[in-house]
Amino acid sequence: METVKRQYRLFPNFGDSFGTGWDVMMDSFLRLFLLVIILAIIASPMKAAHFNFNLSDFNFRHWDMSDFFNFGTFGILAAFYGFLGLLYSFLVAPVFSYGGNLMFVQSVRQEKADFECLIKGFRENYLSIVLANLLVTALIVLGCFALLVPGIIIACRLAFVSYLVMDKKLDPIEAVETSWRMTRGHGWTIFFMGFTSIFIFLFGLLLLIIGVFPACIWIGSAFASLYESVLRANEKPAESEIVQS
């Protein structure tokens, strides 16, 4: 007997995005759970690249020349390690992150999420991924320097860049322009989804940390659902549809 798949409600609003995201999580939990674990492992080198030390912890009054030499050597190594972490965060990590977003979109479309997507970017559109991530980061940082609010607006309006680069194979400029156009009228939805995602993540932390993984799956599925619903609405602006695979 053929298994009847559930219908996903693809409407570009807050409630349906999180509702569909929950259904996607339930239907593809193991595959997306493994995806989130892989992405967490990939992100761990960036977390380790942050050094926190206080100069007050060092008593310079009792130091000799060898101590100062060792301190200088440590500083050089720390700077070098931080530089490697920065390169990793801009040249390696985005490929996996963008590929993971595509896997969430595949799950929303009730397709089999292909783990090859995680490394596909290294072979097919590596330069577009790196440049798109760099461009989005630069625009958000510049916006944040302008009293923070513009940075938040830019982050919301460029929320679909990673999906467009991977799904539609757009170059960085096209992806930014298309995301800005697609998110017109959906900025507040994206903002409230992002704000709500913070509390979902924190609630997951309270559940003995284990709940972080389902929280990340739900958040990723919700945003992928919003992208797919806006994409379909733009393709058929006169229709709001329920999609069945």
A few lines on this structure:
With 245 residues, this protein is an all-alpha fold.
Folded structure, characterized:
This protein has 245 residues and is mainly α. The chain has one domain. It is 71% helix and 2% strand. It has eleven helices and two strands, in the order E-H-H-H-H-H-H-H-H-H-H-H-E. The longest helix is centred in the first third of the chain and has 27 residues.
List keywords for this structure.
globular; mainly alpha; 11 helices; 245 residues; single chain; two-stranded antiparallel ribbon; 2 strands
What's the helical proportion of residues? over 70%
Number of strands: 2
Mean pLDDT: 86
> How would a crystallographer describe the biggest sheet?
2 strands, antiparallel
Poorly predicted ranges: 238-245
Number of domains: 1
By secondary-structure content and strand pairing, the structural class works out as mainly alpha
Distance from N terminus to C terminus (CA atoms, Å) equals 16 Å
| Strand proportion | under 5%
How many DSSP helices? 11
In what order do the strands lie side by side in the largest sheet? 1-2
SSE arrangement, N to C: EHHHHHHHHHHHE
Shape: globular
Q: Round the Cα radius of gyration to an integer and report it.
A: 21 Å
